[in-house]
Amino acid sequence: MATSLLDVSDLACRRGGRKVFERLSFGLAAGELLALVGRNGSGKTTLLRALALLVRPDAGAIRWQGAEVRDEPEAWRGRLAWLGHLEGLKGDLSVAENLRMAERLRGDPSPDVGRVDAALAAFDLQTLADRPVRTLSAGQRRRSALARVMLADVPLWLLDEPLNALDAPAQAAFRAALGKHLAAGGLAIAATHADLGVPCRTLDLGIAAPQRAPA
Amino acid sequence: MSGFAALVARDLRLVWRRPGDVAVVLAFFIVATTLFPLGIGPEANVLARIAAGVLWCAALFAALLSLDRLFAADFEDGTLDLLLLAPWPLELAALAKCGAHWIVTGLPLAALAPVLGVAFGLEPEVLLALAATLLVGTPTLSLIGGLAAALTLGARKSGALLALLALPLCVPTLIFGAGAVEALATGGDFGAHLAVLAALALVALATTPWAIAAALRQAGE
């Protein structure tokens, strides 16, 4: 097996005084996809947010190429693309504006037009490119958000329920984009209830964490 | 720095798409200040005496009126996560948001105040002084208000809570802002008041971005 780029060891998280998960360890090598499964409330979203440093873990280490990511949080954030349960799109901006703006906010002052067009095309959004996002359906918004993730061109994708609201052609488009990302040596971690349809490793977070942590 | 400029540009563009939000704030400022001459009556001495205080208080309330959406809109559509995950300091993002807020509220308020001051029978030089104090003082209001907005993010009745948090912190700015105009009318030292006002703005500039960033990280958890 290839050496892993991302190493998570003994990670533990508490939310509101209760233990969500603990002693969680896994490694992920280039080109690998990790599917997070488990019941509602088992901590899939919390784990994704902890990996993105949006939630402070209580214990454990997250290492990228051997270096603890919390030592250089900005460099780490530069390697992530994020899709949460909220799309992260501005309703008053068009789809294309949202994509360009997301790239500018990542620090690229003039996103390449060809790359933006390619991301739009990958999710069949060309005809919607100039529509304000607030006029789109839930599935169309999800596709726009996935196009934003794809456009970021970073090694690690963190996806929370990426297939939500997607119809069959959109799911196929997502699989194609994800497959391309993995084939190029990218990594992805996705919390999901559905079959992602791409070869992956699975991490089962189990049933919902107990209401109270044992003493 | 390009991320900072992009965020300012984005917020300005969003306001441009929905000009009504800013128009309401400016209309509130106009209506609130014109109520005073109507309520107090046409006694030129009294009106000129209270003009600076009234205009400053109304500007403060108007600025607060627009602040509760400053971070709440980003929080609700998930773009706050993108700011938290941007590979540049969140403190700069906080500053960019407050800067954009100042451009769309502080600047127009400072430009409108002298026009409204005419209704209070103020002299031309006092009108200019009033605009100058608002120009120097309103950045402090945007920064302190931004901090209150970040702290109340996700809270119920966040608007009322925001005002309760921000108003006491804005008292020094209010005192020296209105005091500067007063000083000019009574032959006091206008420059000294303005300098204190600028110092307050610099203190806010040097401290609030860090506090806002910390509050936003907390809200993101």
Summary tags:
heterodimer, A: 215 residues, alpha/beta, Rossmann fold, 6 helices, 26% strand, disordered C terminus, B: 221 residues, mainly alpha, 10 helices
Give the name of the CATH superfamily of the largest domain in chain A: P-loop containing nucleotide triphosphate hydrolases
Which two chains touch over the largest interface?
A-B, 30 and 26 residues
Give the helix tally of chain A. Answer: 6
Q: State the total count of DSSP E strands of chain A.
A: 9
Helix segment count of chain B?
A: 10
Instruction: Report the helical percentage of chain A.
Output: 25-40%
Radius of gyration of chain A: 17 Å
Q: Into which percentage range does the β-strand content of chain A fall?
A: 25-35%
The counted number of beta strands of chain B is 0
Description:
The complex is a heterodimer of chains A (215) and B (221). Helices cover 30% and strands 26% of the residues of chain A. Chain A is of the alpha/beta class and 215 residues long. Chain A folds into 2 domains: 1-15 and 26-79 and 156-207, Rossmann fold; 94-153. Chain A has a 5-stranded parallel β-sheet, with helices on both faces. A 4-stranded antiparallel β-sheet of chain A has the order 2-1-4-5, covered by helices on one side. In chain A, strand 7 (156-160), helix 6 (168-183) and strand 8 (187-191) form a beta-alpha-beta unit. The relative contact order of chain B is 0.15. Chain B has one domain (2-220). Chains A and B meet through helix 2 and helix 3 of A and helix 1 and helix 5 of B.
What's a concise summary of this model?
Chain A has 215 residues and is of the alpha/beta class. Chain A has helices spanning 44-51, 73-77, 95-105, 113-122, 138-151, 168-183; strands at residues 4-15, 18-29, 33-37, 59-64, 67-68, 80-83, 156-160, 187-191, 201-204.
